[in-house]
Design brief:
Strand 10 and strand 11 form a beta hairpin. The protein has 2 domains: about 120 residues, Rossmann fold; about 260 residues, no CATH class. The protein is globular. It is α/β, with parallel strands linked by helices. It is built from 16 helices and 15 strands. The strands form 2 sheets. Strands 6, 7, 8, 9, 10, 11, 12, 13, 14 and 15 form a 10-stranded mixed β-sheet that branches. Helix 10 packs across helix 13.
Length: about 425
Amino acid sequence: MYKSREYHSRYIEEEVRYAAKNSKVVLIVGARQVGKSTLLENLFPDYPVITFNPLEDVKSARKDPAFFLSQFDGPVILDEIQFAPELLAYIKIKVDQSGAMGQYFLTGSQNLSVLKSVAESMAGRVVIIELTPMIIYEVAQNFSMTNSGASPKHWLEHYLTNPQSVILQAGGTVSGMVLTEAVWRGGYPGVLGKDERWFSRYFSGYLKTYIERDVRTQTDVEQLMKFEHFVALLAALTAKEINYTELGRDIAAHGSTARRWLEIVRATYLWRDVSPFVGNTIKRVTTKTKGYFIDTGFACQLLRITSPEHLLGHPMFGFLFETYISNMLFSVLQAVPFSVGQYHWRTNGGAEVDLVLEHGNALYPIEIKVSSVLGKHDARGLRAFRETYASGPQKVMPGIIVYSGADCYWVEPDVLAVPWNLLMRS
């Protein structure tokens, strides 16, 4: 059973502190209720917090943005900035009048025109960081910051800097975390420590609030009930390639409508795309985008999976496990101090790799399998990928299979098995 605390440390904290020291404006984006304002309030407890909403002009911020900003003589946290877009031009003027770093901390749960304008109007003045639902280490609170405030390195960062060193990080797994429970619960802070009866109530209310506040007030979706069904449909498509024609048919709409609605779900951080990797090859590979639902706990509720036990034997278990791990790795990548490309790979012949990371001049293939024991057949996709790109301009690094077992070992000389809940080491 998970234990609830007032605040769970987030892996991204070090990156936020670093951004505050090196940028005038810090924008934290992500889905609603993933803990954006809570993160900032705990990192900067002395800063005032103003939360905006679509129904009220808080402190006349929209009517008189210049006067609103004049009331603060130091750093301030402006929560849900998309509901007060009039402030952005005046924030730009204010930060240009001072060389101080960390003047404004903004949060937003929509990547629509407002947040896009933040990036465009304050280029060179803003750092944008995406916060996801909590990952396993944050839920379990099994990691602690160093004296300098740094997070321990996740095995993924070790893999991207020295693949052979991952085996040296093997030294146990996160305790007290049953796989089915972890996947079923997901990572929304609002369900921490709650019993199973709470989940359907929480996510039912979450979905209604999302439709009313994020979709109805910010977009031109005409059929809100059908859109709600569309969100539930996406939960069943997590970890799969997207066919817009078929998706439109499932909601009795044109493919262009499905494409537009998916953009809304993506822009409100409930869905994440992973592009196909093609590279230099004569093999025919898929060019379809793959997608992941933002949280497996939310997805399980939309799929009417009523308990962790219900996951066992469920046809979606493998896809949900892949989603859980892919989302965790995506979250970790938000905190690493370098850029990493993220792709998936599949040939028309059926060979596939769930995640291909591109860092420097190298490719890092990762497979995700909900199996407690691995054999050489589980490395077929990784072997096919290596053979396809062995003579290419980029080096193919040893592959990894993230699986549901508990030991870290070499399946083949170039394929390492990594437990889904491998402990982090500094």
